[in-house]
Fold each of these.
Amino acid sequence: MSKKAVILLSGGLDSSTCLAIAKKEGFSCYAISFDYGQRHRVELSAAKRVADTLGTQEHRIVQLSLGDLADSALTDLRLAVPETPSEGIPITYVPARNPIFLSIALSWAESLGARDIFLGANIVDYSGYPDCRPEFIAAFEKMANLATKAGIEGEHFHIHTPLMHLNKADIVKEGAALGIDYALTFSCYQANAAGQACGVCDSCRIRADGFKQAGIADPTVYFS
Amino acid sequence: MSKKAVILLSGGLDSSTCLAIAKKEGFSCYAISFDYGQRHRVELSAAKRVADTLGTQEHRIVQLSLGDLADSALTDLRLAVPETPSEGIPITYVPARNPIFLSIALSWAESLGARDIFLGANIVDYSGYPDCRPEFIAAFEKMANLATKAGIEGEHFHIHTPLMHLNKADIVKEGAALGIDYALTFSCYQANAAGQACGVCDSCRIRADGFKQAGIADPTVYFS
């Protein structure tokens, strides 16, 4: 029986590629997504489509009322999503999002008997989020192995970030080579109700550039 | 204006004492509780009573569908809560509970401008949970300061665990000296619907011993 892994799946380009890589590496995949008050909640439909199409053992959507707590343009509809590149950490930063998501994934992993967790974090074309950097991932992994029964019993939890040092074009090529239909995926921070992308937010821009530089047709449907 | 702190408040003896200590230290207190699928959900009423009585700036109850994911006697009604002391980590252990709760508290803290988080973790009379040990707290704090905007900008997040090295009797004495009415608090893992305690679970036994050894009358109402 193949080893189990938990994959954080937003339904975006990165996490979908990450799921395809975990499958290629032979893991039996358990996908987890979060309904946390994000304005782009339509991404959860993409996550479901991707999980169904690529194939997972289970796909869970965790309900978490984070929008009431976290100060971010991704959860507060009164704040505008930036439509031009900015310096530093953008207001789409959601405080401690990856610590929260990884901790919940860790809980499920320990319960399932999985010791491997995949996250599509990336520092090359990333948007300046501190909880996407390798220093954070290493510190989280260390904490996870001190926090859990399995960890202190010597069964090492491993946080895999196979996209960390790839640029977006390389991620697109990797996913395409693994057969992902990127039309299933969804990355926009402010899509409309029909699930069409804005084309101008950080996430859309980085994604569009990735397709362009990879020389692969961009299947995203834009409303603007 | 006094410094803000986020206090993890279950409504139990330890976290209530922790809130009283944070107030004594002059912090402006923001309490956070979790509705995570625990069988002893009645503790949330105690958390509310304690927050109201001791006084907090705000008290938030976060909804989190953890019960579907975590394998624990505290969230799975098919598993029995142990009624005699056991060796090692008990089945009331909820995988990665403190990493999850602290990460969510961290998100709120960063959003509020608080850099101090209080947790009533304790290793003396504790029930064998790995995520209550000082090694875990230190690793979490390190991770938190690499994960967040404020952390990487040099504003240090500090996880306070003022009860870590106290025994339960000392915690009871400290809280009593700070004026806590422990009748407001609630610790049982398997209370009945009226909020009466079982008197036999680990949490009840450690609590009752604490009152006994402190020489303070136990105000807990037991059903058995």
Amino acid sequence: MTHFADAITAAALAKSPVCVGLDPHPDKLPEGLSADAAGVKEFCEGIIDATASVACAVKPQLAYFELLGWEGMKVFWEICDYAKKKGLIVIADGKRNDIGPTCAAYADAYLHELSPIDALTVSPYLGSDGVTPFIERCDKNNKGIFVLVKTSNDSSGELQDLPTGDEAVHEHLAQLVDSWGLAHLGKTVDLSSVGAVVGATYPEELKYLRTLMPHALFLIPGYGAQGGTAKDVSHGFLEGGKGAIVAASRSIIYASKGKDWKEAAGKAATKMAEDIEKNS
Amino acid sequence: MTHFADAITAAALAKSPVCVGLDPHPDKLPEGLSADAAGVKEFCEGIIDATASVACAVKPQLAYFELLGWEGMKVFWEICDYAKKKGLIVIADGKRNDIGPTCAAYADAYLHELSPIDALTVSPYLGSDGVTPFIERCDKNNKGIFVLVKTSNDSSGELQDLPTGDEAVHEHLAQLVDSWGLAHLGKTVDLSSVGAVVGATYPEELKYLRTLMPHALFLIPGYGAQGGTAKDVSHGFLEGGKGAIVAASRSIIYASKGKDWKEAAGKAATKMAEDIEKNS
């Protein structure tokens, strides 16, 4: 098995740093799909088929599967398996967070040895008690986590930008994240299994956070529908196009709501990959 | 239908402020139960039966159900229904957090009109974008949320206690939480549908946070196994024993691992209720 940082770096270099966000709201599916768990499954598998040759990863968003109760969770695991078999890195976007034995239960739920999921997003408000159990499973099972550092939304600053001494809360957290990863580096890259979520919508912060977290893989949401550009996300990369993947959801998966939705998603992912490449 | 703050206040005054944390790790169930979804269901229903006459609420912890995949989520919804039918307030402990349409999906998943769940715990790192969609569903469906403010774990201070100006991050957040709830008060109490999680293990902070959040219901974890005492939690209450519920999990649900586990759980819940009453 391969360390998560090595695996995702190799995949991003071989294909592109594009990560397709699977946010399948049952009421928003394209023409011809049913507004239920079966429709969500068909939609996700279609998007995976259409983008697997260009994207390095998919990021299923747990909320949309939980919305359909346990039937949705069944589909969640099925589409994670499907993506894994298609050679994609699978990042479960759950922003999970808890402490001690409960945090360990989340880690065992998503990052167990046989899980099709390669990495999970994690929310940091609880401090290292909410992160350490995840890192233990990452080490054991070659998995990864992405800790929310500076998110892409308008109100992210309410807590994340609070000034604390000479730095903002998210800058302080960034240094913690880098330190948490130091003992967990890959074999072929100087990057750790402890990554960071940093939004494309704050390019200045992204540039500075890259210096504060030299060992963290960046998962960069906010490209496309949220307004982030390829120029903006370029600040998240290290030399040689390493160190970051860029997530987009709506601009790819809903590129068309007509019968050509698969084809349109594939084209949108390809265009995004070219856009990032051109601006790198 | 009744506003969440009115409903939980009435239940706590009629029975006790005890909230039973359902943290059913399949490998830790008492004698005679199978280490799978069926065992977890039997265990949770047994604990509910044993404590429903004394506790006002149960708090199933989603991590332990997610640990069992979709079969676990099926049991999660079944035991929420079961608890609701037994007259308990049901608080799903998921610490969910996301933004915009994704946050709305979480809100619709757990706080929809026909959901047996009365309230959900929410993690605040994303700011108000991660809270507003929940509050909208609370208003519409008479539900509640509990936002993490100061958690009970050792490392909670790493982010929550960072100094920002004259106050700590969690104190700043506390004021936001109170303000978020101001337009969403109950009819019989001056408390809102936007509650706060404040750990029993930091009694001084608990006392001060009570003054910063006069309109917030407190969900207080950390009593019992984590070290919080009845004296500690007393600081979280308002006059007349209102405004707070106290959660305990291990000290109740694992009071005995032998065949008398149900009886032992009932006794532990009763003892806890008496302990809190005596120190109020």
